[in-house]
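STRUCTURE:
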């Protein structure tokens, strides 16, 4: 599976839109990468799982709720690796867990995320996992919008590993 094939699949799933969009961090952009388009397209989702699997060893996986849950689930099936889900905040009902699923104290965990812009949601997940005892040194994303996530994560000693960057995704568009 090549980067070009993944970019084609993302475009074919109509995951890249142009116009004026407000982003979750409050900024605006003239393009939008719609995670729901690529996460609900079985062919694209399969290619993403294969691409993630090629970059993983035997680490436990963690998906950021809610957006990365389909990605971490399909990657878990592809790799046979277990996964956990990092909630944005602790539940106020039921078990009250912020991290759903199990891992051993000190166990290496790789965070899987859909799109990285500022890196804040990925960093929040990393911090929650570390507080719960995981060893987190890497975040894998489908698309790095190249708007500061790499630097934000690096400050916390976390590597950002993107399947594609915005520059690559938007080339020739």
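SEQUENCE:
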């Amino acid at each position: 599976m090549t980067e070009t094939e993944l970019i084609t699949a993302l475009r074919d799933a109509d995951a890249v839109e142009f116009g004026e969009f407000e982003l979750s961090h409050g900024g605006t952009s003239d393009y939008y990468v719609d995670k729901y388009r690529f996460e609900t397209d079985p062919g694209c989702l399969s290619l993403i799982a294969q691409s993630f699997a090629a970059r993983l060893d035997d680490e436990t996986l963690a998906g950021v709720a809610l957006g990365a849950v389909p990605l971490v689930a399909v990657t878990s099936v592809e790799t046979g690796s277990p996964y956990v889900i990092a909630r944005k905040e602790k539940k106020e009902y039921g078990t009250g867990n912020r991290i759903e699923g199990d891992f051993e104290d000190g166990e290496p965990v790789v965070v899987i995320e859909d799109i990285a812009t500022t890196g804040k949601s990925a960093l929040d997940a990393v911090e929650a996992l570390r507080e719960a005892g995981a060893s987190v040194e890497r975040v894998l994303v489908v698309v790095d919008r190249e708007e500061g996530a790499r630097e934000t994560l690096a400050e916390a000693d976390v590597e950002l590993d993107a399947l594609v960057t915005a520059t690559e995704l938007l080339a020739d568009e």
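REMARK: The first strand starts at residue 16 and ends at 22.
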